[in-house]
UniProtKB/TrEMBL annotation:
Transmembrane segments: 33-53, 86-108
Protein name (database record): Ribonuclease G
Source superkingdom: Bacteria
Keyword Transmembrane helix: yes
Keyword line: Membrane, Transmembrane, Transmembrane helix
Length: 112
């Protein structure tokens, strides 16, 4: 239960990819402003995980959802977008690592 007396149903608790990846935009879109703390450098490395874990609860407490089904439908869009963005970021990170490793290897091999 939050300070407004709104009970958070157990079914909506859990990880929210949208709150994790798009924390600031997700927070504004869901009328919950704690994700704005992600604007603080270094602290945001910790806070993005808090947003991912607590996002559904914050959105439920601040939103005007009539039922769990509607809430889940709205958050499913955020979750899908966040998960796709996360996968794309991981793929680009791996490709970047291999590109840099290849460049370093080429430079080392050309010097000897």
């Amino acid at each position: 239960m939050d300070e407004n007396g709104k009970v958070v149903p157990e079914e909506i608790r859990g990880w929210n990819w949208g709150a994790f990846i798009y924390n600031i935009f997700w927070g504004i879109g869901n009328k919950t402003y704690l994700p704005l703390l992600c604007l603080i450098p270094v602290f945001n490395l910790f806070w993005i995980f808090v947003c991912g874990f607590k996002g559904n609860e914050w959105a439920w407490q601040k939103g005007d959802y009539q039922d769990i089904k509607t809430f889940k439908a709205v958050q499913a869009t955020w979750n899908r977008a966040g998960l796709v963005q996360f996968i794309i970021a991981v793929i680009f990170g791996v490709l970047y690592f291999f590109f840099i490793a290849t460049m370093i290897s080429a430079l080392i091999n050309n010097n000897y």
